[in-house]
Amino acid sequence: MAIRVAVDAMGGDDAPAVIVEGAVRAVESSKGRIEVQLCGPETVVQAVLEKFGAPSGIEIVHAPQVIGMGDSPVAAVRAKGNSSIHVGLRNHKERLADAFLSAGNTGAVGAASLFVLGRLPGLFRPSIPTLYPTLKGVCTVLDVGSNMDSRPDHLLQFAKMGSAYARIIMDVAQPRIGLLSVGEEPAKGNELVRAAHELLVNSMDLNFIGNIEGRDIFYQKADVIVCDGFVGNVILKLGESIRTVVPEMIEQELAKLQSKPSVVDLLKEVLAALSRRFDPERYGGGCPLLGVEGEVFILHGSTTAVAVEQCIKQAAQAAKLNLTSAIQRALAP
Questions:
Q1: How many CA atoms lie within 13 A of 124 on its CB side?
Q2: How far apart are CA 153 and CA 166, in angstroms?
Q3: Given CA atoms 241, 246, 251, 257 in this order, what sign does their dihedral have?
Q4: What does the alpha-carbon distance between residue 191 and residue 151 come to, in Å, rounded to a whole number?
């Protein structure tokens, strides 16, 4: 039986065109294993879908309202109960869809997910993880923006959810958990980090290896790196900038050296490969919202059709492996 993914067709900077194209790509490449429900104003979505021949495996679910990228999340969630985000989440809640994803207003997706789906028992706050490239592959960093002000017990739960995510999705048997700090010693860091360190040390169900520093991320000293959302978002945006800034810096130096064309061409190939390491499309296109009662995935607003395709497949995989149940077990006392 095909896995059904509800997709916010109106979310993102280039919606619905990019979203619909990504959905078509996902359905066609899955060869019947994935079906997509495109949620949005029916006439608008239908007009775009017809450009792709309206392939089978894609259903349009009418949602008359749209939450804009600049809308206040809480106000929009309250006022626009028939938005493409709400309708997709309700389909997931009612088990008409196995997962939901959106490239729309991140705050609204988070607020609506809590309102429609609810949070897992015992959860304080949901968390958004991301995959960060390293010399050995990738590591999971969380939280990366959904919680700007966290308590120590929040970070403990992030660690538990991140560990379950790494086991289920990344296939890491015993994920090493590291707490991001300004030094390896337990006494280093601010009050939040020091208190979280004590909780993590005393958590017997985690493979906690202690504090790690920012320079340890690229060496993958830990498989899961825990931090509050403010710090995590800085790390995320730094990684995004590396993709463009480092190649530009190297090209500036090449211009100064006046290297031979053959050398320049070779280095450009290397730079292109380096850039791909920081490409979100390579790591599933989006990130899950861990801790809600369902499989919810969030994409960047400037997403591409390829990223949408990859994220739909990632959401389908999470539904197949029942990621939410693994998170719930991890949070159980």
A1: 15
A2: 20
A3: positive
A4: 10
Q: Could you tell me which of 282, 287, 294, 286 has the C-alpha nearest to residue 319?
A: 294
pTM above 0.85, yes or no: yes
Residue the block writes with tokens 């995935």: 297
- Alpha helices by DSSP H, listed for the chain, are 17-30, 42-49, 73-79, 84-93, 106-116, 152-168, 191-201, 229-257, 261-277, 305-321, 323-331
Q: Using an 8 Å Cβ cutoff, are 52 and 38 in contact? A: no
Give the distance from CA 43 to its chain's centroid.
30
**Residue-wise pLDDT tens digits, 216-274:** 999 999 999 999 999 999 988 888 888 778 778 877 777 776 666 666 677 778 777 77
Q: Record the tokens describing residue 23, joined without a space.
A: 């959905």
Rounded-to-integer distance, Cα 211 and Cα 217, Å: 11
Tabulate helix, strand, coil % of the chain (nearest 5): 50, 20, 35
Neighbours of 221 (CB within 10 A): 19
Q: Strand, helix or coil at 165?
A: helix
Both tokens assigned to 39 = 């949620």
Based on the number of CB atoms within 10 Å of its own CB, is 215 exposed (0-12), middle (13-18) or buried (19 or more)?
A: exposed
Burial label, 312 (beta-carbon count in 10 A; 0-12, 13-18, 19+): buried
